[in-house]
Design brief:
heterodimer, A: D-Maltodextrin-Binding Protein, domain 2, five-stranded mixed sheet, four-stranded mixed sheet, 18 helices, 13 strands, B: 314 residues, mainly alpha, 2 strands, globular, Bact_solute-bd_prot1 (chain A), SBP (chain A), ABC transporter substrate-binding protein (chain A), MetI-like (chain B), transmembrane (chain B)
Chain lengths: 452, 314
Amino acid sequence: MPFFPRPASASAPGAAPAKPGRAKRRLRATGAVAAAAAAVLALSACGGPAQSSADGTVELRFSWWGSDKRAQVTQAAIAAFEAENPNIKIKAEYGDWSGYWDKLATQVAANDAPDIIQMDEKYITEYSSRGALLDLSKYGIDTSKLDEAALNAGKNEDGLTGIAAGINAATILANPAVFKAAGVALPDDKTWTWEDFERISAEVTAKSPKGTYGAAAYGTDEASLGVWLRQNGKSLYTSDGKLGFEPSDIAGWWDFLKQLSEKKAVPSASEVVEAEAAPLDQSGLATGKNGLAFWWSNQLPALEKAAGSELKVLRFPSKTGKAADTQLWYKASQFWSASSRTKHPEEAAKFINFLANDTKAGEALLADRGVYPNSEVRAAIQSKLTPADVKVVKFIDQIKSELGEAPAPPPKGAGAIQEIIKRYSSEVLFNRLSTQDAGTKAVDEMKSAISS
Amino acid sequence: MSAISELSSMSRRKGPVTDEEKRANRRDNKAAYIFLLPWLVGLVVITVGPMLMSLYLAFTDYNLLQPPEWTGLDNFTRMLGDARLHNSLRVTFTYVLVGVPLQLAVALLIALVLDKGLRGLPFYRSVFYLPSLLGGSVAVAILWKQIFGTTGLVNQVLAMFGIAGPGWISDPSTSLGSIILLHVWTFGSPMIIFLAGLRQIPNMYYEAAEVDGATTLQKFWRITLPMLSPIIFFNLVLQIIGSFQSFTQAFIVSGGNGGPSDSTMFFTLYLYQKGFGQFDMGYASAMAWFLLVIIGAFTAINFIASKYWVFYDD
């Protein structure tokens, strides 16, 4: 379409127009107004949430973070749901963890939140207490078959704002190929201590080619800190939403990290920083550069796929060398939540109910988001699980009797904690701060992050 | 400068204005405004509106999820005691005060070389301009990350000489330097402007100087630099404003966190983290306005100082 239609006089040279100048000008003016109007219309057409169309179809937006593998299985679950509910269309929006939360915050602020949101425990209190999530208990989602602890993790003062999508646990994953190449035996995770961890990792590094290390460094997330604190009688958070440890506790954690670094059990400070930015498929464990690494149990299948070889799930080491003292816990890997401003709460709840309770969803998702919290679905999909999934489920079952107390839920503002830990870990690794100073500063920052 | 004075002398034309001319003027103005409309709507809706909104938000506590609450100057007083913000200012100032002069020096140097009447000049000009087109892009920042990584190209070359290089972008002592280098590398657009400026200097000055027996260096100091000073000034102002706002390079190279240990935490990056990562949009808005004031002050100082060193030949 031409923006500025030529006046009739120009295209028909034979005709003799009256008042040529003015007519031309008026036409041009009309053209400009039309262009301006088009621009305004185009602008206003950008925003706006999904609407139900004239034929009664409802479109819901569903966003999650995760690997390519997760995208595949989730799309399969969506397809299964759409086949049963032809009047509901689910539009998938997914990406990496790192950009997910910035995007979600912006979308919620712009009143453009996805209808169904994959939530994490670090942020669920933040979003719930600010009224951004729907209380799902009012929309007839069947919770009778769900694991009780997992179900409770999604409950808070604002109601049931998340349905656990899976159960997982903090683990150490081992790449047997790296151990074999170095000629070092895999540790016995039922009896190993942190000293064993240090000794074995350093030995693997020493017997491996340059650039390969016995273990990945911890210090980039709060899970490994949480385990350490629990083994020392502390916790990340208290039940009244405060920080559950002192500067000296986290300093001790860093002292041991520095020790690992000095013995070359873990990569150099620079390599640690570089590894932080790498996605799961490029991680040291997947590329065979690390013998041991800290991951959530449900990430094993995706990591095995990326590594192209088998991995082994290990318990964390303990101080005493007793599996019962590792103080692990079951975590709700993530939650299904719905936006409080969704135009279609019934349909969104219906989809969440399908994901949580329908065997068809289970058959698609398997154990990608952790062990299924619904006991019936878990039993029904048992035969469909891949060997990697089976390994994860077995591990979760095995540690059941050794679990510590369930940790207090992360308070509002807990989303900032990981970044603080990361930053001070690199300050420590680069010898820019003593562990004690880093502890004091980090705890100050964390306190102000969760109190605001 | 001369174009502007010509324009103003045109409008100050002597003689009475006839009614017919007035009407024609008014018609023309109307048409002009209508043509301006699309841009004007964009400016108001996309720029001025959000700016005013952010000015309001700067005085509120706004967590993105709930309506903002008026807190007066609270955000600004908080900025006084925020050590990470002070660090981000230090990083940004280092970047601007080191990066901009370096980049302009390189741009001028290359422009001088190209101005010597090289054969195939358009080709070289395009080649040197290429980094400017690419430099701000995500792809180049990712490439930079690879080149300066612990096992990247730079260290591989160094290893040939038996030197074990650090992880240039993952070591806090060199990370900012490597981002400054990336900035210097994108010298293309000031170079093009310098090149145009060099072409404007009348040859007669150089000829006269040669007759008087001036050396190449003398010609550069006494003729080229003074004659080029308005162009240098122009580039300086633009580059300073642009560098204060630079974001993409640090965001990509550091993986979005300004690390390692905040060594590449630019002011804009911290602002972004506060606003979109930590639900502190009121504070982020206050920071944005503070940055505007800083840039405004720098530009004002630039203009005042220009009286003492910029030479206008008219």
